[in-house]
Specification:
single chain; alpha/beta; disordered N terminus; disordered C terminus
């Protein structure tokens, strides 16, 4: 499938484009990079209206993040059969596909009742993915137990340790990985600020330890400054498992002696970052996209801006067009078939 630009028009010819690993050459092939929109800023729309909106903004793919009428935050899915069928019809009518479903459940909670509930919700979400014809899901490692269980019960504070959250996550993965493999669904996982694992290299190591071709790594660009300073090296290090990236800009919270943000009281333990339009923060996007091209990345590229609900349409169009320009720059435009003009 060719990459799509504004208005859903294909940029390429009849074939899809794939980056030949470490060469910079564009080939036609069965797989294709997918530029998707996380439509969280449009979550007020019905599912049917959402499909139309995503197409209007120029995207062919959606990464469907949590919303109350489908895969709600932390609780059992709300996607009953009639709702699924109506959404599938709207997607088909508007020429839009689901690149990935993004559930968020407490699968890393040291509270066994929370963890078991999360695993049940995951199993149902996998069933929904299969029914929707979706072959990819993505999520975060997790922030441990619900903060409602005590005054400071997340894995970064309170009476629960990072180790207890990691142990709970491993128990969940031991149960869920065989299901992902059996159903042919891929899982892409990202470390997130405040998770029990916030940085890149421990996260990559853990995914390697799972040892499943169905479980891969997701690099979230607005989390870069929690990962480290050398973005190109981090992308190279993650490359064998890298299947998915999130694209949004952020400030470097460690810059200017830690005074990019001023939090009171001084020394308060907070994790701050943004999800802004490309160019509004401090990510070096030429380094980001050129590094992806160098390692032969051809997975899902999701625009995940959350900062501008008051101009969500403008942001969505800008991100689609800007991502496409970087793809054209570093992967090359796909050649159109046809006779050369004399």
């Amino acid at each position: 499938m060719a990459l799509r630009g504004r208005g859903g028009a294909p940029f390429g010819g009849a074939g899809s484009i794939v980056k030949a690993q470490r060469t910079g050459k564009i080939l036609t092939g069965k797989n294709a990079m997918k530029i998707a929109l996380d439509p969280y800023m449009h979550r007020h729309l019905s599912l049917e209206a959402l499909a139309r909106k995503v197409a209007e903004l120029g995207y062919e793919y959606i990464e469907l993040s949590p919303r109350d009428d489908f895969l709600a935050w932390w609780v059992a899915p709300r996607a009953y059969p009639e709702r699924i069928q109506s959404f599938k019809k709207a997607l088909k009518d508007h020429g839009v596909k689901i690149a990935s479903l993004l559930p968020m459940y407490r699968w890393a909670s040291p509270h066994e009742d929370e963890r078991q509930a999360a695993v049940r919700y995951w199993k149902k979400a996998i069933e929904i993915a299969v029914e929707m014809g979706v072959d990819t899901m993505n999520s975060e490692f997790g922030r441990g137990p619900s903060p409602d269980r005590s005054h400071a019960a997340n894995c970064c504070g309170g009476r629960y340790t990072v180790e207890s959250s990691e142990a709970a996550w491993w128990r969940s993965m031991e149960e869920l990985t065989p299901i992902f493999e059996r159903e042919g669904v891929r899982l892409h996982i990202e470390p997130h600020p405040e998770d029990f694992v916030e940085t890149l290299h421990p996260a990559v190591d853990m995914i390697r330890m799972i040892g499943s071709n169905n479980v891969k790594f997701l690099y979230c660009a607005p989390h870069t400054f929690y990962f480290g300073d050398d973005m190109a090296k981090m992308i190279r290090d993650a490359a064998p498992l890298l299947a998915h990236v999130h694209v949004a800009d952020t400030y470097n919270h460690r810059a200017s002696s830690g005074l990019r943000y001023i939090c009171n009281p001084p020394g308060a333990h907070v994790t701050v970052h943004q999800h802004m339009d490309i160019g509004q923060g401090e990510i070096d996007w030429d380094v980001f996209f050129s590094s992806l091209a160098e390692v032969g990345f051809d997975g899902i590229v999701t625009s995940c801006v959350f900062a501008w609900e008051e101009r969500a349409d403008q942001s969505g169009r800008f991100m689609c067009e800007t991502i496409q320009r970087y793809v054209d720059k570093y992967w090359g435009k796909p050649k159109r078939k046809g006779k050369a003009k004399p």
